[in-house]
Amino acid sequence: MEHFHGVQLAEVGKSITEIIDFELSQDQGPNVVRQGVDHDLDELKRTYEGLESLLAQVAHHVAQSVPEALNANINVVFFPQIGFLIAIPQDPITGHGVFEGPEDDPWEKMFTTEDYAYYKNENVIEMDSYFGDIYGRICDREIEIIHELAVKISQYEDLLTAASDICAEIDW
Description:
Shape: elongated
Strand order of the largest sheet: 1-2-4-3
Radius of gyration: 24 Å
CATH class of the largest domain: Mainly Alpha
CATH topology of the largest domain: MutS, DNA mismatch repair protein, Chain A, domain 3
Distance between the termini: 16 Å
């Protein structure tokens, strides 16, 4: 027990809790970086959280080019690494979307699911260019921050090993 330094251990714990948001990590994934740790990360997350309203606006704009007679439920969605896509109901007979863009500017089909066909058009390609893979950038930045934390904590390896050994003795 003479090698155990409680103050240093408390500093390690404080370093971790200042970076990791444990409540959000439980809900969203393995390690979520706390708001306020990194300004750029906070901006990316704010933008990502605001995408839903933007997607609804773009879907409304795209729907205006679809003939009303089709009564198509159009959505604009975002998939990490794929980007922004127009989702339109699929015609079960043809396997194509019930609408595939105007004749003079057809949409590019990316893939289909059981009920929907997913397309790219100029609007979503422009969004891809502007936002990029925002979710991927958020994940990458969180990984960088957590790696920096791990490097900082690794300086206390002996302390953490001693604390772990003491806990094991107590638990024994």
